[in-house]
Predict the structure.
Amino acid sequence: MNNNQAFIDKLRTSGLRPTKQRILIAKNLFERSKTFHFTVEKLNKVINKKGSAKVSLATIYNTVEAFTKAGYLKEILTSKSKSYYDTNIKSHHHFYDEGTKELTDIDYNQVKLSKVPVPPKGKKIKNLEVIIRIQK
Amino acid sequence: MNNNQAFIDKLRTSGLRPTKQRILIAKNLFERSKTFHFTVEKLNKVINKKGSAKVSLATIYNTVEAFTKAGYLKEILTSKSKSYYDTNIKSHHHFYDEGTKELTDIDYNQVKLSKVPVPPKGKKIKNLEVIIRIQK
DNA sequence: ATTATAGTTTATAATAATTCTAAACTATAA
DNA sequence: TTATAGTTTAGAATTATTATAAACTATAAT
């Protein structure tokens, strides 16, 4: 029923104290069947929906940042004003719908690169992302 | 020496009145040997450097937006808070240096995709961009 | 040329996302 | 049990961007 222990261990492993706020946020983010694309605003609404325990907006920002640093979340590239995050941390790509502003995952093996440039001297490739902008 | 006429014609063609502000901004953006990656803040500094005619920040925002809509500039995808623009409007890709936050163009033919996903029903691909994040 | 007007510029205010601050709280180790 | 280092919180501060509305100007019609 309640397997908070897994989250507690995961948090401890990353040097994050397992506070009730972090566990609650982790449950909301990671106990999902599908990957979740969200902004902080959206996550805040999910967490602080009527009747539930309240978590401050500052903590939601802090936690999203901490989870991103710990590698549990991935920040998504868009040109929009808000930051988007993704619970799918595997290397993958996105459709970005210019009309609806919705993001859809593209599985890694749906995109194949046959040529990738050499990075500038002294630099290493950290990550490669393809964004396909779509519209009607 | 002074070939403003080319800019005047270009602006008129796009339905933009050739005001002195727009011409000045166009000269600063497009009379360059290399492509120019910039934020509005950076462009504002370039335009309003000491001793030059002043253009309001609002006009710089308006003009960058108008030039982007007209297809003279390309907005670049990064997850950072500021919007980045590029005078290179040809289809191309970017290195984004996480340390220095600098963008570098990658020529279109330096990247080859051998597999691209089909867009969702009813949607067309408008643009495909590869961002390669690099770090030391 | 003169005038009317629709488009443009401008300073400033408003908004929105995010970060900062410092006091209260809490998990953890001693 | 206690000390402390990490965490949460409300609210203030910051930053990028957009909105507002008055003054200005390019252009077309007279």
Summary: Chain A has two domains: 4-76, 90-134. The beta strands of chain A are 37-38, 74-76, 84-86, 93-97, 103-106, 112-115, 124-135.
